[in-house]
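User: Second chain of the day. Same drill as before.
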Amino acid sequence: MATKKIAGGIAPTSTRTLWKGAITFGLVHIPVGLHSATQESGLDFDWIDKRSGDRVGYKRINKATGKEIATSDIVKGIEYEDGQYVILTPEELEAAYPKTLQTIEIEAFVKAGEIPFVYLEKPYYVAPINRGSRVYALLRETLKASGRVGLAKVVISSSQHLAVLIPCGPALILNLLRWGDEVRSWEQLSLPDEGREGLKPGELKMAEQLVDEMTTKWDPNKFRDSFREQVMELVEKKAQSGKLMAVTEPEKGEAPPAGATVHDLSEMLRRSLASGKRTPAAKTVARGRSDGEAEDDIAPRKAATKKTAAKKSEPKKAATKKAVGGKGASASGARPAAKKAAAKTAARRKAA
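Assistant: Same format as last time:
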């Protein structure tokens, strides 16, 4: 669905508090809460099976066997050498998590222009709570007057972050930063040396003039995601003309299919059986399989099948094989044949 906008095209304020704690520096303590400062507005494409209208999902697959595995069989590991992993237990990871101290602990103040934009990662609005407004305003105005920002550490969702506290209008913004080893160096890039050496004065003058002519005040509403807008206009147009596909949602409580490569065969067979429309058994059906048996016994064998269906069919296999009289016969065909044979035997005895 399209993202709702308020006047001016800006997304609405998020009043939900994501985190509660306090800004601390020296002996100063400011109780605050964090609120989301951004929201994603990209196109959210769902994958849909064009043949059936079912939604396409994701599974945890063993890359060697191609089979789905249970969450309980998954452990976390870090590659230490090529192909060699160190496995870490949940208890070991729990012990390594930083202690959740509900503080934005300012460790230093720096000039606002000293932090390169490449370090900025995710912003949050910081709002005062519990009568912290006066001290909050004091810090905000002090940072504005000094042209400085606060460098802090904060723990959010069991992860420790480096962050910068920036005054912006009436608000303080906590912008999470990338750690130093997460930002790549530019040393190996072929970049011209800093300075005006080698640049002609006339070229510099014309470039500066062009920049001056194009200079304006920052207004985010002047810039739009034209691709998203055109796609949403197309979606609206097609919807109004009746070009809609009904997407089937899975039934509640129904276990997802456990196939690895071909995910739709079991579902198609199940629907066919449910509708009562059955096709005659093909000659390639493996010996002794009834209509309801596992589809991985249909030749040629399919790479991905329902594990649940296969398990349910196992107890039937022995009984089915005993009932089969000849190669290629089905279980359903074996029963009438057995009855006819028994009738003939009874007739002979009567005649004797």
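Helices lie at 90-96, 133-146, 201-214, 226-240, 265-275, 307-323, 331-351.

User: Great, on to the next one.
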